[in-house]
Amino acid sequence: MSSSTVRAYIPTTVSAAAARWDDGTACAAGSSVYRVTADDRAGQTGKPDEEALEYAAFRRAADAAAGNRRGETAVVISADVPAGEITGGVLAADLPAAAVVSFHLGADLLWYDATEAGDILR
After folding, report:
1. CA 68 to each of CA 42, 63, 80: distance values in angstroms, whole numbers, following the listed order
2. pLDDT tens digit string along 29-80?
3. Residue 91 burial class via C-beta count within 10 angstroms: exposed 0-12, middle 13-18, buried 19 and up
4. Can you spell out the DSSP letters for 56-121?
5. In this structure, CATH architecture of domain 5-116
6. How many Cα atoms are found within 13 Å in the side-chain-facing hemisphere of 111?
7. What are the domain boundaries of the chain?
8. Three-state secondary-structure class, residue 48
9. Which of 47, 24, 48, 46 is nearest to 36 (CA)?
10. 9 in Cβ contact with 77 (< 8 Å)
11. Contact partners, residue 111, CB within 8 Å, separation at least 6
12. Which pLDDT does position 2 carry in this prediction?
C-alpha cells in the first residue's frame, strides 16, 4: 500500500461481488466504504495503534455487510484504494478488481486471498 492509497473495507454480498468481478471491477461507485479516519486517530492518546484502528474499520464494514445481506452470504472486500477515490464514506469511482487484497466471507469472516475470487464468488 503506497502513501497515496488507504486500506478500505467494502461491505457487500457474494452475488453482488460476483456480478461485477467478471467485468474487472469489485464494486461500483457509490458503494459504502469503511476506513480509518482522522477522527479515529484523534480518539487515541499517544501513538495511534494502527492495527487496532484498521480492525475497528474492518468490524464496522463487517457489521454493515451482515445487516445488508438479505439472506445471502456477507462479504467484506479489503482493498487498497486511492485516497482521493473515497468521498464522504463512499467510493467516487468503480473499484478495479486489481485493487482487491482479500475477501472475508460469512458470519465467521473467513479470509480468502484476491487470487481465489474465481472460486469463492460463485
Report:
1. 29, 9, 23
2. 999 999 988 888 887 777 778 898 999 999 999 999 987 767 788 999 999 9
3. buried
4. HHHHHHHHHHHHT-TTSPEEEEEEEEEGGGEETTEESSPEEGGGEEEEEETTTTEEEEGGGHHHH-
5. Alpha-Beta Barrel (3.20)
6. 5
7. 5-116
8. coil
9. 48
10. yes
11. 102, 103, 104
12. 53
Collapsing DSSP to helix, strand or coil, 8 comes out as strand
Radius of gyration of the chain (CA): 14
* Residue whose C-alpha cell is 468490524: 59
Q: Any idea which residue has 464522504 for its cell?
A: 88
CA distance 96 to 25: 4
